Amino acid sequence: MGVFTFVCRSSGGEWSAKQLSGDLEGSAASTFALQRLLVQAALAVDSSGAVQSSFSMVSPASAVFQVIIGGGGGGAFIGGGTPSVGAAAGGGAAAPEAPPAEEKKEEKEESDDDMGFSLFD
């Protein structure tokens, strides 16, 4: 598993990034293009599995970008509707079944007689 962390800065309309602890770096005209470039650079070093990435702006002119390669199936993610990669491939425990849906009880409309008065009295 490879984790690549980049510090990104904008200067003169161009975004540049340097790896926090390593030699990878790149520059592009937009943050989107920079992210794509950095993922490709990280894949050139380590192509052992799935790719996850996270881009977080720190200020309007700086950001942190992290690329994780071969991290498993994202098992720490909570709240998704899909099983992790390991469970889908048969490499883990089966996902728990959803509890049965509760029956909806129909509420009876109360008539004016039940309240002891009428709207049109």
From TrEMBL:
<keyword id="KW-0689">Ribosomal protein</keyword>
<dbReference type="Pfam" id="PF00428">
    <property type="entry name" value="Ribosomal_60s"/>
</dbReference>
<dbReference type="GO" id="GO:0003735">
    <property type="term" value="F:structural constituent of ribosome"/>
</dbReference>
<protein>
    <submittedName>
        <fullName>60S acidic ribosomal protein</fullName>
    </submittedName>
</protein>
<feature type="region of interest" description="Disordered">
    <location>
        <begin position="87"/>
        <end position="121"/>
    </location>
</feature>
<keyword id="KW-0687">Ribonucleoprotein</keyword>
<dbReference type="GO" id="GO:0005840">
    <property type="term" value="C:ribosome"/>
</dbReference>
<dbReference type="InterPro" id="IPR044252">
    <property type="entry name" value="RPP3"/>
</dbReference>
